[in-house]
Design goal:
The complex is a heterodimer. Chain A is of the alpha/beta class. Chain A has three domains: about 160 residues, Thiamin diphosphate (ThDP)-binding fold, Pyr/PP domains (Rossmann fold, 3-Layer(aba) Sandwich), CATH 3.40.50.970; about 170 residues, TPP-binding domain (Rossmann fold, 3-Layer(aba) Sandwich); about 170 residues, Rossmann fold, CATH 3.40.50.970. Chain A contains 22 helices and 20 strands. In chain A, strands 3-2-4-5-7-6 form a six-stranded parallel beta sheet, sandwiched between helices. Chain A has a six-stranded parallel beta sheet with strand order 11-10-9-12-13-14, with helices on both faces. In chain A, strands 16-15-17-18-20-19 form a six-stranded parallel beta sheet, sandwiched between helices. In chain A, helix 7 links the parallel strand 6 and strand 7. In chain B, the strands form two sheets. In chain B, strands 5, 6, 7, 8 and 9 form a five-stranded antiparallel beta sheet that branches. In chain B, strands 2-3-1-4 form a four-stranded antiparallel beta sheet, with helices on one face. By secondary structure, chain B is an alpha+beta fold. The radius of gyration of chain B is 19 Å and the shape is elongated. Chain B contains four helices and nine strands; from the N terminus they run E-H-E-E-H-E-E-H-E-E-H-E-E. The chains are: A alpha/beta, B alpha+beta.
């Protein structure tokens, strides 16, 4: 069989995996790969910083459910990607990151642009590889794609020495990677499913607590069917938003530190908590001992390490969320003694009580004349996009207000760094999502602080005509930290005042984008409308009420029933 | 509580660092670690002694299972098992103490593996408590250097009926 170069093999393997889009940044170690890549029909997006490349691949992956791919060069190229790799790891996003490495003979030699990226990324990848043997190049890449997408997804890094990329190899026949040491359990145990279903039937005050696992498993339909059929209120984590329609009467919105009053009260008073694809994160549970103290807990998750990690679980189901929910749905369908309507009616008093909490303390904010309230901006974006835009966020107040006030009715519409909390995520992720859905409105809801962390990607958006809309909620503060300082540090605003920002409107223009400004409330709607009708990158600078806080708020370490309200 | 874990993993560069990184990154404790190839050269066996509350050990075992290169994890505390450790001790052995050292080593079924004008290097094998005992007894005579292997352990074969 004729030999091909490592570069050609990589390209062929990417095609075999269905990849037609990669995000990256070239450099000495990957120059040959780029030489080959740019002769093919795989589209390469040149970002302006390697962190942006991996975030963009991540945004693409979250929006589509496919594996995102990025290519970085060795040394600083690779280390610049680390924050974004860790971001994907914390949120279980399937990525394959290819990094260049110095030639094998120079590894360990402190060569130019050499870094032990496999060592550096060991704790923030699902798995990683250094390809030492050219014949292992293709099998390794196949494993990387298989690992990234299966089980609990995650980023996989493959480090490619320059001489491996350049060597001549025989392209191995296509075959499914066989990994005896890796067999994720996707099918639910029927006995556990039955136990869980019976527990549902015995419950008087059940609550569904839904996380990103449902979205990753594409299980929204099954979840919605389950919740509606049994008439069970649903609260979602930040990562779970959109798994169940936000405008459904059974939706309580987000729970936890900035969750709704109704969601936190419902969990606290419930007698059965059904956790699906969620992981009892500290931002969700608050003080652990006071979290759902009276509830029996069912936990469905594909990752056994998530079970009973923070909270002891009564009925664990280790499985793919979609399959587990399907199994529960069909148990209820086939179970003769079960009358869904009777059960749903029996739940009604509890549902009424939960809705009562929501009526008592709904999400709200105080109007202040002409001043733009950040929550109002998000409500308007929600209204003018019909709740169907793809929304990315940065991290901080902008992220929490988005989670509270944008009503996500579909999965894969909110792309946000939940676990790691990476400022600078939103803009590159929006670009990645826009590549996947060129005709959908894609918004990055940002703060004036976080947008500056990866603002250089405006050039990428412009270069490829990706008309993302950046909405900056500009309060001239690092708002979330400022809010903590206001509440817990005696208003000592240590290093959170950011009143030296560029003029974002002029900056947008400098990038060839459109800049729009709103200083008073009545200008908000026209600005958003203009942005939506502009087929160009748009930066909207909203001067918002400076010291607005995110409420409700549960102070860190407190029980989630102890909420500070508006 | 002390747990002895036996971990089979793929014998590949980096596999061990995934295991040790997992422990250090989660602040789990490693008391001793011993690793070498098994009869199958593609598989290594690692014996790891750790200490922690039940929940922590359970989490550590689950996390080990999750590592891609890990084939099998056994918590030997759930079974009957044999454990052995080896120690090399260089002990002071001048005219006055030579005979005493030899007597002690004989009691512990150790042997002398190196001799110099004023020291013996002895080898002793046994359970952790036996190793500790021999060290305690030789200490007053004067230990110059000591190297321990850490524990290796194996589940006992099932008893025939």
């Amino acid at each position: 069989m004729s030999k091909i170069t490592g570069s050609q093999a990589i390209i062929q393997c990417l095609k075999e995996e269905g990849v037609d889009l990669v995000f990256g940044y070239p450099g000495g170690a990957v120059i040959e790969l780029y030489d080959e890549l740019c002769k093919t029909d795989i589209k390469h997006v040149l970002v302006r910083h390697e962190q942006g490349a991996v975030h963009a691949a991540d945004g693409f992956a979250r929006a589509t459910g496919k594996v995102g791919v990025s290519i970085l060069t060795s040394g600083p190229g690779a280390t610049n990607g680390v924050t974004a790799i860790a971001t994907a790891y914390c949120d279980s996003i399937p990525l394959v990151v290819l990094t260049g490495q110095v030639p094998r003979a120079l590894i360990g030699n402190d060569a130019f642009q050499e870094v032990d990226i496999v060592g550096i990324t060991r704790p923030c990848t699902k798995h990683n590889y250094l390809v030492n043997d050219p014949e292992q190049l293709v099998p390794t890449l196949r494993e990387a794609f298989y690992l990234a997408a299966s089980g609990r997804p995650g980023p996989v890094l493959v480090d490619l020495p320059k001489d491996v990329i350049g060597s001549l190899i025989t392209y191995p026949k296509k075959e499914q990677p066989k990994m005896q040491t890796y067999q994720p359990n996707v099918e639910p145990h029927p006995g556990q499913v039955e136990k869980a279903c019976k527990a549902c039937l015995n419950a008087k005050k059940p609550v569904l607590y839904v996380g990103g696992g449902v979205i990753l498993a594409n299980g929204s339909k099954e979840l919605t069917q389950f919740a509606r059929k049994l008439n069970i209120p649903v609260t979602m984590t930040l990562m779970g938003l959109g798994a169940f329609p936000g405008t459904d009467p059974l939706s309580l919105g987000m729970l936890g530190m900035h969750g709704t009053y109704a969601a936190n009260m419902a969990v606290a008073k419930s007698d059965l908590l059904i956790a699906v694809g969620s992981r009892f994160d500290d931002r969700v549970t608050g003080k652990l001992e006071a979290f759902a103290p009276n509830a029996e807990i069912i936990h469905i998750d594909i990752d056994p390490t998530s079970i009973s990690k923070n909270v002891d679980v009564d009925i664990p189901i280790v499985a793919d969320c979609k399959q587990a929910l399907q199994a529960m749905n069909s148990w209820f369908e086939s179970h003769n003694a079960f009358d869904a309507d009777t059960f749903a009616a029996g739940n009604q008093p509890w549902v009424d009580r939960v809705l009562e909490w929501d009526k008592k303390h709904p999400l709200c904010y105080h109007e202040e004349g002409d001043i733009i309230k950040p929550q109002f901006v998000i409500e308007k974006i929600n209204e003018l996009t019909g709740g169907d835009a793809i929304i990315t966020t940065e991290v901080g107040q902008n992220q929490m207000w988005t989670a509270q006030f944008y009503k996500f009715n579909h999965p894969r519409r909110l792309l946000t760094s939940g676990g790691l909390g990476t400022m600078g995520y939103g803009l590159p992720a929006a670009i990645g999502a826009q590549f996947a859905f060129p005709d959908k409105p894609v918004f990055d809801i940002a703060g004036d602080g976080s947008i500056q962390m990866n603002i250089q990607e405006l050039a990428t958006a412009k270069q490829y005509n990706m008309p993302v809309k950046v909405a900056i909620l500009n309060n001239q503060y690092l708002g979330m930290v400022r809010q903590w300082q206001e509440l817990f540090y005696n208003r000592h605003y240590a290093s959170t005042v950011m009143d030296h920002a560029p003029d974002f409107v002029e900056l947008a223009k400098a990038y060839g984008a459109v800049g729009l400004r709103a200083k008073i409330k009545s200008e908000v709607e026209p600005v958003i409308k203009e942005a939506l009708s502009t087929n160009n990158v748009v930066v909207m600078d909203f001067s918002v009420s400076r010291e607005e806080g995110v409420f409700p708020m549960v102070p860190a370490g407190k029980p989630t029933t102890e909420m500070l309200l508006v | 509580m002390k747990h002895t874990l036996s971990v089979l993993l793929r014998n590949k560069p980096g596999a061990l660092s995934h295991v040790t990184g997992l422990f250090s990154g989660r602040c789990f404790n490693i008391e001793s670690l011993c690793v070498a190839e098994t009869i199958d050269p593609e598989v290594s066996c690692l014996t790891l002694v750790t200490r922690g509350k039940e929940g922590v050990i359970e989490q550590a075992i689950k996390q080990l299972h999750k590592l891609i290169d890990v084939i099998k994890v056994t918590d030997l505390n759930e079974k009957d098992f044999v454990e052995r450790e080896m120690v090399l001790i260089r002990v002071k052995a001048d005219a006055s103490s030579r005979a005493e050292v030899l007597r002690i080593i004989d009691i512990f079924r150790g042997k002398v593996v190196d001799v110099s004008a004023n020291s013996y290097t002895v080898e002793v094998t046994g359970s952790e408590s036996k190793i500790k005992a021999v060290i305690d007894i030789l200490k007053p005579i004067g230990i110059k250097e000591i190297i321990r292997t850490g524990t290796v352990a194996m589940a006992r074969a099932p008893k025939s009926k």
